[in-house]
């Protein structure tokens, strides 16, 4: 009886720890997503290096979003791609202007 109680207690502690870790990981990628995509309105005013950094951050975040559940992945992947495309468009427009 004592062994079962210890095992159940250990399972409960592990479940709570994993849920907490998952919640933090979820918050991390959403915070990164918001930080990246909140700059789209000012994309034309951003320095070129920051635009390149944002594109790289989009590319880095994409696999994290692809690991989410299907509905979350569908929504956030599309939004992330739109942000990335906008930053890339601004970068390419600047390159065209230089030529």
List keywords for this structure.
Lipoprotein; single chain; signal; 3 helices; elongated; mainly alpha
Kindly describe this structure:
This protein has 99 residues and is an all-alpha fold. It has three helices and no strands. Helix 1 runs antiparallel to helix 2 (48-66) and helix 2 (48-66) packs antiparallel against helix 3 (70-98). The N and C termini lie far apart (79 Å). Keywords: Signal.
Short description:
With 99 residues, the protein is mostly helical. It has helices at 2-37, 48-66, 70-98. Helix 1 runs antiparallel to helix 2 (48-66) and helix 2 (48-66) runs antiparallel to helix 3.
Which sequence of SSEs, written as H and E, runs from N to C? HHH
Radius of gyration: 20 Å
Classify the beta-strand content into a percent band: under 5%
Distance between the termini: 79 Å
Compute the average pLDDT: 82
Quick one: overall form? elongated
Secondary structure elements and pairings:
Elements: H1 2-37, H2 48-66, H3 70-98
